[in-house]
Amino acid sequence: MEILTDRLRLRKWTNRDKPAFAAIQADPRVMEYFPATLTRKESDAVVERFKKHHKEHGFGYFAAERRTDKQLLGFIGLSRQEYPAFFTPCVDIGWMLHPDVWGQGLAAEGARACLEHAFGALGLDAVRAVTVHRNMPSIRVMHQLGMAYEGAFIHPDFADRHDQQPCLVYVRRAPAEGQP
């Protein structure tokens, strides 16, 4: 299973992706809006969780690679979320990309393709996105994707990071039949 866009190949994870992804997750710029930077061992465990999610659900956070040189850029994709919140359980769309490609529209490009997959092949009626209230770049991507603000909540994964609370949730509902 893979999704192709003009510039990206979204595909399943392999063990070869682990070193490059660990470097991305060790970068404090990338992890500014996440609970903490990750060690190599912690990052490898994340890749294993992504692989398990794909196997169990048939979708997940994809490894995002640039089509021209096959360089791993991070992840873009869909994931089931079941932590306690007013909108869960749900399917969430998320992204994390290397700082060298920020501002190039890749998150929106890949996420648009994932939304098409979610509403088409997967038949989902809604997809949500969550971010901390200060993450303006991701909020801009959510707006570009046509997502609407749904509310704020206290994310259990950020319990000890008061600077990251509240988190915001946005939603995009499946288009009505015949609508783009």
UniProtKB/TrEMBL annotation:
InterPro entries: Acyl_CoA_acyltransferase, GNAT_dom, N-acetyltransferase. Signal peptide: none annotated. The keyword Transferase applies. Keywords: Transferase. PROSITE patterns: GNAT. Pfam families: Acetyltransf_3 (PF13302). Residues 8-175 form the N-acetyltransferase domain. GO terms for molecular function: acyltransferase activity, transferring groups other than amino-acyl groups. This is N-acetyltransferase.
